[in-house]
Amino acid sequence: MIVDDSAVVRQTLTALINKQSDMKVVETAIDPIIAQQKLPVAKPHILILDMEMPRMDGITFLGILMEKTPMPVIVFSSVSQPGSVKALEALRLGAVDVLGKPHGSYSVGEMGIQLVEKIRGAAHVKINRRATSAMAQPLVRPSVTKPINLVPPTASVGWDGPIVLIGASTGGTEALKEVLMRLPENFPPLLIVQHIPPVFSKAFADRLNDLCAIDVKEACDGDGLRPGLALVAPGNYHMMLARNGRQWRVRVADGPPVWHQRPAVDVLFKSAVEHAGPRIVAAILTGMGKDGAEGLLKLRKAGAKTFGQTEETCVVYGMPRAAFELGACEKMVPLQRMAEQLCQSVHLASHV
Predict the structure, then answer these.
(1) Which residues pair with 215 in a beta bridge?
(2) Distance (Å, rounded) from C-alpha 57 to C-alpha 69?
(3) What is the pLDDT of residue 291?
């Protein structure tokens, strides 16, 4: 079911979806009020939801929907700073994924491929009231306790200790929040690839920065790595690990999508293979598809410590499953224990 006040959007998305052999648009609505009336009859499996609509905004409607009739929701939101903030709020309330609405004349293009894949991913999501109710609780930054002495606090130049890499997709924004909020402020350098549209990635990084003891920012080309800093790959750009003399840095660059994704987890993971061995600790979290599995396997073969999120704690057990089936994961870890596992692993790596 498509809920959007734009007739062009409704018609274009309907045509795109109905071309697929495994999906069909059963209903559309111009606003949430009409959607509420049509839902009991249409009984859609997945809902595509705009944020800005007359009579009731998407956030209000999503809150009501997740309380009364929880289902997988894909947010289709404006690629602007206000739109990004609302999209992230929707993910907190239980939406499973987000897609950026293009500027100007409406064109499907690569966005159409992404939407189709997101719908397929959402079809595997199991929503329940208890889970969505827990996610809807207000975000409160935890009190920061005395940090675990994992790394020297002054080791910001010529860093030669562990480097942590994490990849995620569908359900990853909340999963990453769960992990990063549990990390101490002097945690080793952390590089993150989350499948997310442009502009949304900055809002996502800013949100994590407000919540976490570590610093979190959207990566820029040439950013240096240091303890206590997490860099999030910007939407629509790949991020790679590189070395410049004694300083580790990231490269942020354009390039063809990998697994229909830019940024792609595999691009980051594979860029770190030549620097692997005991210094790299890598994890792959919830997400649809196979992105990251090949790179994680290469890292493990090169001596990195590698982990995947367990099926029962994933929103979509796609990327971790692909990695597990390839033999890329040294261990499968529940989401609530992933931060602890990473802390233990970097502690061991720092003593190698």
Answers:
(1) 229
(2) 17
(3) 96
Catalytic residue, chosen from 31, 77, 84, 195, is: 195
Which stretches within the chain are classed as H helix? 7-18, 32-42, 58-68, 81-93, 109-122, 129-135, 172-180, 200-211, 265-271, 293-301, 319-326, 335-349
Give me the catalytic one of 169, 201, 271, 345. Answer: 169
Q: Which residues of 277-289 are buried (b: 16+ CB within 10 A; e: fewer)?
A: ebbbbbbbbbbbb
Residues 82-115: pLDDT tens digits?
667 888 888 888 898 888 776 654 456 667 888 8
Q: Is 169 a catalytic residue?
A: yes
pTM listed for this prediction: 0.81
Among 285, 337, 288, 287, residue whose Cα is nearest residue 308: 285
Q: Quick check: is 291 catalytic?
A: yes
Residues belonging to the chain: 352
195 is catalytic: yes
240 bridge partner residues: 251
Q: pLDDT tens digit string along 3-51?
A: 999 898 899 899 999 999 999 999 999 999 999 999 999 999 999 999 8
